[in-house]
Specification:
Belongs to the FAD-binding oxidoreductase/transferase type 4 family. Its EC number is 1.1.2.4. Keywords: FAD, Flavoprotein, Mitochondrion, Oxidoreductase, Transit peptide. It comes from Chytriomyces confervae. The chain folds into five domains: 3-101, Uridine Diphospho-n-acetylenolpyruvylglucosamine Reductase, domain 2 (2-Layer Sandwich), CATH 3.30.43; 108-224, Uridine Diphospho-n-acetylenolpyruvylglucosamine Reductase, domain 3, CATH 3.30.465; 228-335, Alpha-Beta Plaits (2-Layer Sandwich), CATH 3.30.70.2190; 339-440, Alpha-Beta Plaits; 441-465, no CATH class. The strands form four sheets. Strands 15-12-14-13-17-18-16 form a seven-stranded antiparallel sheet, sandwiched between helices. With 483 residues, it is α+β, with helices and mostly antiparallel strands. The chain starts with a helix and ends in a 20-residue tail after the last helix. Helix 9 (239-252) packs antiparallel against helix 14. The model has no long low-confidence stretch (mean pLDDT 94). The longest helix has 20 residues, at 406-425. It contains 17 helices and 18 strands.
C-alpha cells in the first residue's frame, strides 16, 4: 500500500475512533471480496485497477472528510454506487487510489408533491424511487439500466426510453448538493423550476462523470403518471424501413411516450428465453411505441398517427389490449441487453461478454447510420443486435464477443470507433447516454474541438487542482500533444 493511502486510512480511522457520533458509521474495507467487487463495473474495459481500499460513507460529512484528506495527500478517489456504468466511469485506473462507496446514502429525503419534485441521496436507485413515488401518482422519468442509482445517473447525464418525451437527466434535475475535491460543500441552486441566477452549476456537474465533484443530494423534477396509455409494435422487413417510419413519426410531432427500434437479431435473442412458442415474436425489425395521455381520445389519436406513419410496408402490427399484453410486448426491450449472449450459446467452452456502445445523430440521419452500422458489423464478422431509443436518434450496438479472443475484441472496438466517427460526420455525438469514461476519451476532442477541450481542462484544474477526482476519465488533463 502506498504511503499516501496508508496515511489517509490512518487519519480516517482516527476520526472514526475519536468522533464516533459523527463518523462511527464510516467504514474502511480492505478485504479481498470487497476490493474485487469494486474493481469492475458493467463495462468491458480491462484497464481498471483494484483499489487499495473501499471507504463506505453514510453522509455528506463523511464524503467531505474523505475528500479533504485525500486532496491533501493527493490520493485518487472514484465514487461508486451500483457499478452499472458502461464506459468504466466507476473504476480506478491508478491502483494507489480508493473507491468511495455511496450506496448506503440511499434515502429519499423529501417529496414535495405540491411542487412536483423530490430530494434524494446518490445511492437511491431509480427503480426504487419509482416504487416509493407510486402512491403519489408521480414518477421520475429517466430510466436507464435497471440497477442504476441517481448519483451515477447524474454523472453520465443518462436518459433511457422516456427521453423522447421528458428529456435527459439535465432536463430533470433542479438542483444538486456537491462536495468538491477539497471537501467544500456547495448547493448549485434552489428548488424553483426557473432561475436566472448566476452560472448553471447544476448542469456543469451533470455529465461530468465524477471528475468535478461528488453529488450528495439531488432535487429531481417529477411528472404525473399518465392516466391512459397503450403499447403498440410494428414489424418491418428491414432496419432501414423501420427507421424511415420513425423519422415520419418524430417529424409528425405526435407526443409518444416512448419510441424504440429493436432489430431482428435482438428479437431472435429474446425469443431464446421465451418457452411458450405462442408467445415468441416474429424475428423482424420492430418499432415499439408507447402512447400516453390524459384521456382515451389522446391515446387513440397517437395510435392513429402511428398506424398512418407505418403505411403499407408494415408486416405485423399489434396493439396491447390489456396490461399483461403491454408488459409482454415491452419485455422485448427490457430483455435486449441480458439476452444478447444467447445468440452464441451454441459455442461451448467460451466466455462471452457484451461490448456495448452508443451514438446519437439528428433524426434525419438515423436511417443512414443504422444501415452503415449494420454493414460495419457484417464486415467485421461480429454478432451484434441493435436497439435504439429511436425517437431521439440514439442507438446501441450489443457486440457479443469471446472474452478470451483479443482479435475479436479489437474488431469490436474498431466498429465502435467507426460508428462514432460516422456519427460525428453526421453532426451527431460519439455517445448519446453512456458517457465518455475511458473508452471514448480519444473521440471527445474530435467531437468538441481543441478550444472546448482546453476550456474543460481549465475548469477541471480550477475545481480539482490535484486531479484526485476520477482521474483519467472524460479527458487527459494534458492535451495529447503534451503527453
Amino acid at each position: 500500500m502506498s504511503a499516501a493511502v496508508e496515511q489517509l486510512l490512518t487519519a480516517l480511522a482516527a476520526h472514526v475512533q475519536t468522533k464516533s457520533a459523527e463518523f462511527g458509521s464510516l467504514r474502511i474495507r480492505t478485504d479481498n471480496a470487497t476490493l474485487r467487487r469494486h474493481s469492475r463495473d458493467k463495462s468491458y474495459h480491462h484497464e481498471s485497477q483494484r483499489p487499495r481500499a473501499v471507504v463506505a460513507v453514510a453522509s455528506e460529512a463523511h464524503i467531505s472528510l474523505v475528500l479533504s484528506l485525500a486532496n491533501a495527500l493527493k490520493v485518487p478517489v472514484v465514487a461508486y454506487a451500483a457499478g452499472t456504468s458502461l464506459e468504466a466511469q466507476a473504476t480506478l485506473i491508478d491502483h494507489n487510489g480508493i473507491i468511495l462507496d455511496v450506496s448506503e446514502m440511499d434515502n429519499v429525503v423529501a417529496v414535495h408533491e405540491e411542487d412536483l419534485d423530490c430530494v434524494v441521496e446518490p445511492g437511491v436507485g431509480w427503480g426504487e424511487l419509482r416504487e416509493h413515488l407510486k402512491p403519489t401518482g408521480l414518477f421520475f422519468p429517466p430510466d436507464p439500466g435497471a440497477a442504476a442509482c441517481i448519483g451515477g445517473m447524474c454523472g453520465t447525464n443518462c436518459s433511457g426510453t422516456l427521453a423522447f418525451r421528458y428529456g435527459t437527466m439535465k432536463d430533470n434535475v433542479l438542483s444538486l448538493r456537491v462536495v468538491l475535491a477539497d471537501g467544500t460543500v456547495i448547493k448549485t441552486r434552489n428548488r424553483a423550476v426557473k432561475s436566472s441566477a448566476g452560472y448553471d452549476l447544476t448542469r456543469l456537474f451533470i455529465g461530468s462523470e465524477g471528475t468535478l465533484g461528488i453529488v450528495t443530494q439531488a432535487t429531481l423534477r417529477l411528472r404525473r403518471i399518465p392516466t391512459h396509455s397503450s403499447v403498440v409494435i410494428a414489424q418491418f422487413p428491414t432496419l432501414s424501413a423501420s427507421a424511415i417510419v420513425v423519422q415520419r413519426l418524430v417529424q409528425s410531432g405526435a407526443p409518444f411516450l416512448r419510441l424504440e427500434i429493436i432489430d431482428d437479431l435482438c428479437i431472435k435473442a429474446v425469443n431464446t428465453e421465451i418457452e411458450d412458442p405462442a408467445r415468441k415474436f416474429a424475428e423482424l425489425t420492430t418499432i415499439m411505441a408507447e402512447c400516453a395521455g390524459g384521456s382515451h381520445d389522446a391515446v387513440s389519436e397517437q395510435l392513429a398517427s402511428f398506424k398512418q406513419a407505418c403505411g403499407d410496408g408494415v408486416m405485423n402490427l399489434t396493439v396491447a389490449t390489456n396490461e399483461e399484453e403491454a408488459e409482454h410486448l415491452w419485455s422485448l426491450r427490457k430483455r435486449a441487453y441480458f439476452s444478447a449472449t444467447a445468440l452464441r450459446q451454441h459455442e461451448v467452452d467460451k466466455k462471452f461478454t457484451v461490448v456495448v456502445t452508443d451514438v446519437a445523430v439528428p433524426i434525419s440521419r438515423l436511417v443512414d447510420i443504422l444501415v452503415a452500422t449494420k454493414k460495419m458489423i457484417a464486415e467485421a464478422q461480429l454478432v451484434s443486435p441493435i436497439v435504439a431509443h429511436a425517437g431521439d436518434g440514439n442507438f446501441h450496438c450489443l457486440m457479443v464477443v469471446d472474452d478470451n479472443d483479443p482479435a475479436e475484441i479489437e474488431r469490436a472496438t474498431t466498429v465502435r470507433d467507426k460508428m462514432a466517427l460516422l456519427a460525428l460526420q453526421m453532426e451527431g455525438t460519439c455517445t448519446g447516454e453512456h458517457g465518455i469514461g475511458i473508452g471514448k476519451i480519444h473521440l471527445l476532442e474530435k467531437e468538441l474541438g481543441h478550444g472546448a477541450m482546453q476550456l474543460m481542462r481549465t475548469l477541471k484544474k480550477a475545481l480539482d487542482p490535484n486531479n484526485i477526482l476520477n482521474p483519467g476519465k472524460v479527458f487527459h488533463l494534458e492535451s495529447p500533444s503534451k503527453l
